[in-house]
Design goal:
Radius of gyration: 26 Å
CATH class of the largest domain: Mainly Beta
Oligomer: single chain
Shape: elongated
CATH topology of the largest domain: Umud Fragment, subunit A
Structural class: alpha+beta
Number of helices: 11
Helix content: 25-40%
Largest sheet: 9 strands, mixed
Order of helices and strands: HHHHHHHEHHEEEEEHEEEH
Strand order of the largest sheet: 2-1-3-4-9-5-6-7-8
Amino acid sequence: MTIFSKNIKLLRNRRRSTQEEMAQQLQMKRSTLSGYENEVAQPNMVALVNFSNYFNVAIDSLIKIDLSNLPESQINQIERGYDVYLKGSKLRVLVTTVNSDDEENIELVPEKAKAGYANGFADPEYIKVLPTFRLPFLSKQKKYRSFQISGDSMLPIPDGAYVTGEFVQNWMHIKSKQAYIILTLDDGIVFKVVENKIKYANKMILHSLNPLFSPYDIEIQQVKEVWRFVNYISNEIPESNEMKTEVLTQSLKSLQNEVKLIQTKLSL
């Protein structure tokens, strides 16, 4: 029960509770709790259920997953009730990096690194060589990563922009009509507006902001990671409405002239 012992001690310390305080809340002797934490005693099923209810963490997580190996963002999600075993989804252990203050970095995946990321996203040696930065206005309790996009399927977000996403642990929480960065088996990293059909059809429908691109389905088995879009950075200035209006006006005048020319030829 080594993992269980480490986990309950870790979770207790994160709550800043003493053994005496927690034992009282669990209605057990302090010596019994101490025995569990120090591997002197093994809990029965009733005790496991009580610990699970107390921490709002699934029994499977308490006895199978060494929570100390998870990044802060995932532990925080578990403590807030988003335990993947409780939600019925597969645990996704995210490889991450931290700065000198033990705060999680935002790793940057530039265009030239996207192909490697598709194979190395779970490799600590690969992730640690990615460039990192900080955005102080983002929550320290969540995990973020930035990806450089290519192409014009998500215009007006331009080709070459860097999109930052928040790691999504439980895919059942993916909201339709919101944008996500998705790591897929066949297409690598894609940035799309998602229509969530996981619950009923085991798939997602991916839409582009650019209407010239048609939506398409992707089976959930093809998905490796999901990041909820939070912002983007670009060195391009978006076109103003006045510029767009001027272009449309010029196009309309040109079309009108062509129509008049055709009418003139027909009347001859």
